[in-house]
């Protein structure tokens, strides 16, 4: 599992950076089609991730750390963070299907909107959790990649 976390750590960092660099665009349309993605597939994948992560799947965090009144930790799941990100990105990608009748500008707008309102927060939380797991529970995985002195 250490190698999986290491791969996810890099992928999340790149993804978050790319999301933060998406341009602020005005959408071409005010009516973007809803998602038509199969929910059952995501639920099955989330279950597989949860099983693989085992005891490392649940974590606690503050929902809004910038709110001085919000100090009660809430239970989250790393597997759900990863699935929320995937669902939002897949939805944006699905908008590029010409049959959907959505412009590329609308698809980029959707990815940017999703980043700033939803999946960016899941990515930031997942990065923090994965980083913590790598540097506390799976340090040997990181050390395996170091050259011999």
List the helices and strands and how they pair.
Elements: H1 2-20, H2 39-53, E1 58-62, E2 73-77, H3 78-94, H4 104-136, H5 139-144
Antiparallel strand pairs: 1-2
Describe what is shown at a glance.
The protein is mostly helical and 149 residues long. The chain has helices spanning 2-20, 39-53, 78-94, 104-136, 139-144, and strands at residues 58-62, 73-77.
Cα-atom radius of gyration: 18 Å
Kindly identify the CATH topology.
Four Helix Bundle (Hemerythrin (Met), subunit A)
Q: List how many beta strands DSSP finds.
A: 2
How would you state the average pLDDT, rounded?
89
Overall shape? globular
Helix content range: 55-70%
* Class derived from helix and strand content: mainly alpha
Task: Characterise the protein shown here.
The structure is a single chain. The protein is mainly alpha-helical. The protein has one domain (2-23, 38-144): Up-down Bundle (Four Helix Bundle (Hemerythrin (Met), subunit A)), CATH 1.20.120. 60% of the residues lie in helices and 7% in strands. The protein has helices at residues 2-20, 39-53, 78-94, 104-136, 139-144; strands spanning 58-62, 73-77. It has a two-stranded antiparallel sheet. The protein is globular, with a radius of gyration of 18 Å. The mean pLDDT is 89.
């Amino acid at each position: 599992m250490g190698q999986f976390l290491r791969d996810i750590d890099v992928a999340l960092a790149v993804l978050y950076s790319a999301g933060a660099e998406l341009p602020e665009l005005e959408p071409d349309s005010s009516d973007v089609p809803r998602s038509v993605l199969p929910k059952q597939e995501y639920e099955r994948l989330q279950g597989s991730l949860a099983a693989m992560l085992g005891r490392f799947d649940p974590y606690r965090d503050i929902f809004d750390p910038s709110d001085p009144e919000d100090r009660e930790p809430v239970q989250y799941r790393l597997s759900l963070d990863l699935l929320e990100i995937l669902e939002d990105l897949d939805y944006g990608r699905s908008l590029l299907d010409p049959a959907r009748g959505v412009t590329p500008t609308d698809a980029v707008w959707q990815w940017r909107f999703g980043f700033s309102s939803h999946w960016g927060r899941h990515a930031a939380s997942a990065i923090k959790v994965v980083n913590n797991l790598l540097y506390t529970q799976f340090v040997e995985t990181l050390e395996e990649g170091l050259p011999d002195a």
